[in-house]
Amino acid sequence: MFKHAQLQSVKAWMSDPAHGALSLHVRIQRAIRQLILEGALPVGKSLPASRPLALSLGVSRDTVEAAYSQLHAEGFIERRVGSGSFVSQRARHLPRRKRQREVLCDEPAHLSRRAMAVLQSGGVNNFQGPRPFAPGVAETRQFPLATWEKLERQVYKQYGTQALEHSAPQGMPALRSAIADYLNLERGAQATADRVLILTSSQQALGLCAQVLMDAGDQVLVEDPLYQGTRKAIAAAGLVGVPVPVDENGMRVEDMARLGVNARAVFLTPSHQYPTGATLSLDRRLQAIEWARQQRAWIIEDDYDSEFHYEGRPTACVQGLDAHDRTLYIGTFTKSLFAGLRIGYLLLPPSLVAPMTSARTLQDGHNASIAQLTLARFMEGGHYTAHVRAMRALYAERRDVLAELVHKHLGAFLAPCIPAGGLQMPCHFVQGLPEEAVVEAARVVGIDLLGLGSLYATPRNDTGLLMGFAAQTPAEMRVAVEALAKVFARVK
Question: Which residue intervals define the domain HTH gntR-type in the entry (predicted)?
């Protein structure tokens, strides 16, 4: 028979809200199975008869019988006619599970060198919700959802159940064609549909480039400061990142030959350097292309938010200037549309289309067909460019509002550096403040910030904060800035 503690354990399992979706007999069955796995019910132990157990648990006898039948079918108990139910002899071979408090004392898992490198390279701040000042988060409340829904219904009507099937590994032809047309028109690229590879994100693209183009131990040139996701991709591939300083004109490419004698590639964010917002000058773009040609190296161009340039038209992409097919262009719809879409892409040199497609297929197969087909219609119908145009005007206004609010309420602590584009504004401390402490104190009151100092390869004195402005209205930013002023008053 059950001891009091065992009976209480079964009752606790049954009443746990986490198990509320399970039927009563399944909850009883799993509670008893857990007791067997933990060794609380040893081999040969007799179980209560179904009638008294049902009475103790406040359920019907049929419910207990159903639980016992399932335990018997799984081999956890034996049922003997005239004798009752007992923990099966097979249970002696079961590995004993430890309770949660014991598991916490276990030794840490043994990880590969690549995994350890990823952990040691620091965390990536994935700001998933539109909390105040989260960098890189777009406004979704003004997305034309009704239009999107209408186009999605059109896709279902045209394709039927075909829209539910696997996508082609490289991506749906309609979307690849729409992206190529857009890049040629808006970004000055050299694009054709057969060179576009559809992915889930720019982060996946960075990882593919790091793993497919280079071997562990190879050198790759990176901007300093650097986007954390790029640092993670480099660490995961076992590469050696060589930092190249950034100034007001972007990466100092004149230092590339000296610093990267054996480098196999360079990672660039030329439209809006992350996090400074600097735009790589034309002469430096041409120097980088010539370096890649001479070095037989690759340029990995991350054009993550070039749609949002507020001072004239954005500079043409590096890929469109490269006559030697040494540039891989990364784009994403996370910033221009919405993060939940989970569509990014690579524009590849012809020689890399097949190997990159194969490598991507081994990772996760393909993107959802329905989302690709809907996005293709969204772009073909002019809705994408119209939405980007509207958001560009909105974000420019919000950028200026944030700069004014920082000057007015936080001027004693921060000096904003107004960017020509992008979704975030770097703000430097005007007095010595502990960057990590400010970021943590702000997080506690519901404000997401990113420390600029954490993005540099080597410690620097010009620490500060990266503040997103795209996802918040002026009124929302005003409230958040006032709350942030109180944070600074406590931390200083």
Answer: 22-90
pTM above 0.90, yes or no: no
- Give buried/exposed letters for 7-20 (b at 16+ CB in 10 A, else e): bebbbebbeeeeee
Structure confidence at residue 125 as a pLDDT band (50, 70, 90): low
**Strands annotated E in 411-463:** 414-416, 424-429, 450-451
Closest CA to 47 of 7, 97, 95: 7
For the chain, helix, strand, coil in percent to 5 are 50, 15, 35
149: how many CB neighbours lie within 10 A of its CB? 11
What angle, rounded to 10 degrees, do the helices at 353-364 and 202-213 form? Answer: 120
Lookup: tokens for 163: 């829209």
Q: Name the CATH architecture for the domain at 388-491.
A: Alpha-Beta Complex (3.90)
Q: Which fold has domain 144-385?
A: Aspartate Aminotransferase; domain 2 (3.40.640)
Q: Which CATH class is domain 4-100?
A: mainly alpha
**Residue 5: is it exposed, middle or buried by C-beta count within 10 angstroms (0-12/13-18/19+)?**
exposed
User: Which residues fall within 8 angstroms of residue 104, CB to CB, at 6 or more apart?
Assistant: none
Q: Which residue has the tokens 């480098």?
A: 263
- What are the residue ranges spanned by the domains of the chain? 4-100, 144-385, 388-491
Give me 15's structure tokens: 């009443």
pLDDT band of residue 102 (cuts 50, 70, 90) is very low
Are 163 and 370 in contact by the 8 Å Cβ rule? The answer is yes
